[in-house]
Amino acid sequence: MRRILVTGATGQIGSELTPALRQRYGAEQVVAVGHRNMPTESLRSGGPYAACDARDNTALAEIVQKFNINTIYHLAALLSVAAEKDPQLAWDVNMNGLQNVLEIARSHGCGVFHPSSIAAFGPDTPPINTPQVTIQRPNTMYGISKVAAELLCDYYYTRYRVDTRGVRYPGLISHIALPGGGTTDYAVEIFYAALRKRKYTCPLKPDTRLDMMYMPDAIQAAMRIMEADSTKLLHRNAYNITAMSFSPMELAAAIKKKIPEFTINYEVDPIHQAIADSWPDNMNDSAARSQWGWASQYDLERMTSDMLARLAAKLTA
């Protein structure tokens, strides 16, 4: 039986992954761990919850032992833009937190899911159809920490046989989690602005194309790779996965089909733009599709329709 711990459970991915895991494996089998963000009532009442900083090795190990955990989804991290504002803190949180989790996993025989990111690539990476295995020379602290994390997870698998697995997420779009300091936050903010004000000011250039994914696909990927046959995973840390690639101009056009009066203008933020320019336009995820059956369900049109419908209901409520 899986006994699962989710760090960063109150964050962008964790706030949706935790309920999905509880639905699949049982509420009492999934322990949510948060740090600074307050948990929602549904997260706290839906199953076991503990407040803990992932950098606190002793406290985290006690939780793993108390609940007899055998699988850890380690999601606690500072995202790209937030990391550039405080790179020293980003390294501390992103790397020392992961080091703690891997050591605890080694001691307690746990499998570990740790997400990497499109940020693990850099300006020298082929931007079109980015290969699974290619040059990774990121120029942001977030990206550097993700490359280091991929290597560290690989090391713990080859050296200690810790069952580490991960995916390289593109930008993530959610109707539940609010933007949390990422470069692709615009793709969430734009929907709120469209519904509330019928206009949006974008921090990226109109033709800045980036890989994106709707959160339901991201959640399914995290669960599916951890359920996959370990013997078939040739690139376990971490697999390219993608669902759609679009620019702010194209996203605005998709929204305008549903809200004709919507308008967009552009006030380019140098930090956001520089980070976005260093990332690929779209990744090749054929390895994930062939080795563990990855398949996305949402394209731009379907995602846009669902986001607007769900956010409209949320804002009305």
From TrEMBL:
GO terms for biological process: L-threonine catabolic process. It comes from the Bacteria. Residues 4-241 form the NAD-dependent epimerase/dehydratase domain. Gene3D superfamilies: NAD(P)-binding Rossmann-like Domain. SUPFAM superfamilies: NAD(P)-binding Rossmann-fold domains. GO terms for molecular function: L-threonine 3-dehydrogenase activity. It holds the Pfam family Epimerase. Belongs to the NAD(P)-dependent epimerase/dehydratase family. This is NAD-dependent epimerase/dehydratase family protein. It comes from Candidatus Desulfatifera sulfidica.
